[in-house]
Amino acid sequence: MSTTAAGADPFAALADLPGVPEAVESVRTAVDRVYAHRVMRRRSNEISSEAALRGARASAALDGADWALEEVRRRTDFGSEPEARTVGAALRLSAEAGQLLSVWGQSPMRVLARLHVVAEAKEAPEVGRPRVAGEGVQDRDLGLALPDAAETAARLEGLTALLASGSKAPALVVAAIVHGELLALRPFTTRNGLVARAAERIVLVGSGLDPKAVCPAEVGHAELGAEEYSRALTGYVTGTPAGVAGWIRHCARAVELGARESTAVCEALQRGAA
After folding, report:
1. Distance (Å, rounded) from C-alpha 133 to C-alpha 131?
2. Are 248 and 181 in contact (CB under 8 A)?
3. What are the Cα distances from residue 85, in Å, to 72, 119, 164, 175?
4. CA-CA-CA-CA torsion sign (120, 124, 128, 132)
5. Domain Fido: where (predicted)?
6. Would you state the pLDDT for residue 80?
7. How far apart (Å, rounded) are the C-alpha atoms in residues 194 and 182?
8. 133 burial class (0-12, 13-18, 19+ CB within 10 angstroms)?
9. What is the DSSP secondary-structure string of 125-145?
10. Which of 50, 82, 91 is nearest to 64 (CA)?
11. What gap in Å lies between CA 252 and CA 254, rounded to an integer?
12. Domain extents for the chain?
């Protein structure tokens, strides 16, 4: 997506791409179904906590640390090997995202920088700031060309300026573009996938679409699979209407699957099985 697209609200224009209005409506129906569940009236905090855990596990899986849910739930040491550090980073981001909702509308770049700091949990010159000329990216290979630092900085500035100015586009559309653009740019030297998915969550929650954070899109992305994730992202990076629409629809399906996951948790709690 070019953030210099014509018009004051380029996000809104994307909401009319083929299949996107239907995807937006389908997501709203899925989210409403979770919120209408009788368990949500009494135990929404439990559902939110479980969604955060499952979302973190799924986000880590997409970055190559595909642990069983019970292993994530049981484990206390997340600093001993690369996969454990990835899971630990995902868990920290899941916990931090809710604390950054009020900052996002004023300064999305501050939030992205903070997310990277939280994910890395270490002091280093490259942590918490976009990469500069000569720096590469150590993330899992997505099979995409890496924009140079100058292009990345310009596009990131354009994206965050648009976000700060607000949009009338559906939250799903904005969340999908934020997610896709961050994956395309990979602005940090590490942890870009985790940061991108955390930013998607912040948009979905902060917009009011999923205010209690009970529809973890990360679960849906993982369920759809890394291959489909990469394929949809490759379409987004082409910048064509079909490619961008396909990515938004992919993100919509991920949110629906996340909502389905939490509906299942609600029903298990209702049965006394969880």
Report:
1. 7
2. no
3. 12, 9, 32, 26
4. negative
5. 107-250
6. 78
7. 10
8. exposed
9. TTTTS---TT----SPP-S-P
10. 82
11. 5
12. 10-271
Tally the C-alpha atoms within 13 A of residue 261's C-alpha that lie toward its C-beta: 28
Tokens of 65: 């640390």
Query: Could you tell me the pTM of the whole model?
Result: 0.95
Structure tokens at 35: 């919120």
Residue 8 CB neighbours (<10 A): 9
The contacts of residue 48 (CB under 8 Å, 6+ apart) are 212, 213, 214
Contact 266/46 with Cβ under 8 angstroms? no
DSSP state of 98: G
Q: Which residue has the tokens 């060309």?
A: 145
Q: Which CATH class is domain 10-271?
A: mainly alpha
C-alpha 21: how far from its chain's center? 20
Helices (H), 147-240: 149-165, 171-185, 192-206, 217-224, 226-238
Paired tokens of 10: 């380029």
